[in-house]
Amino acid sequence: MRYELYYWPGIPGRGEFVRLALEDAGADYIDIAYDADDGVEHVDQGLDFEENPRAPFAPPYLRAGDIEVSHVANILQFLGPRLGLAPTDEAERLWCHGLQLTLTDFVAEIHDTHHPLGPGLYYEDQKAEAARRSGLFLKQRLPKFLQYFEQVLANNPTGDRWLVGEACTTADLSLFQVVTGLHYAFPKAMARHDNATPRIGALTHAVAQRPALAAYLDSSRRMAFNENGLFRHYPELDAAH
């Protein structure tokens, strides 16, 4: 099976959560916006109801033969069993999916630190609101999310290496991306939580050391975080609390 990933070029964004799973599993995939001729047009066409009667609201979306799946959590729920990155037990798969949905909420709150009034305005048009939102996020929401995942790891009955069961899942890869992105966006704030979240730190290190993923992270295919994506480093926001 060759998978087709549709996402905008130039930013890791939400598409990166899907790339991590595909790369970790050594899956055969094409990153449409980068690898296909007129890639951006292909992404746009998939969002047009005249071209696609089941057009998703926005990328990322994934095509696998005749199947099309949208939304990160939905895509990873589809890919996980196929790539060996999901538990085999149904209850555990649902638990894993729930963690992925919690990460989806976490990512939305991270995005809103720099765009609290919405994506229709530039950051420069909402800097005062972003500073206030970031202050509240760093004081209240960031520690709450981090401590939640630290406790998930601590309470895994099979050990605290992974979030679910004894093996790496898509949720672990996604938590790695979130934590790595937060260290880029809020290095000072995250440094204050490192000692209190040793299990998250160990998981992040373990994911980065997985052979296929380590090769990907060291390659030109891995896009750097930047100020056009989900995780943005504005020093004034990192100092908001």
Unreliable parts: none
Q: So, CATH architecture of the largest domain?
A: Up-down Bundle
Spell the H/E element sequence: EHEHHEEHHHHHHHH
Question: Percentage of helical residues?
Answer: 40-55%
Instruction: Name the quaternary structure.
Output: single chain
Q: What general form does the structure show?
A: globular
Q: Regarding CATH, which class of the largest domain?
A: Mainly Alpha
Look at the helices and sheets and give the structural class.
alpha+beta
| Biggest sheet strand line-up | 2-1-3-4
Tally of individual helices: 11
Fraction in beta strands:
5-15%
- The CATH topology annotation of the largest domain reads as Glutathione S-transferase Yfyf (Class Pi), Chain A, domain 2
The separation of the N and C termini measures 48 Å
Mean pLDDT comes to 95
The major pleated sheet works out as: 4 strands, mixed
* Strand segment tally: 4
Number of domains: 2
Q: Radius of gyration over alpha carbons?
A: 18 Å
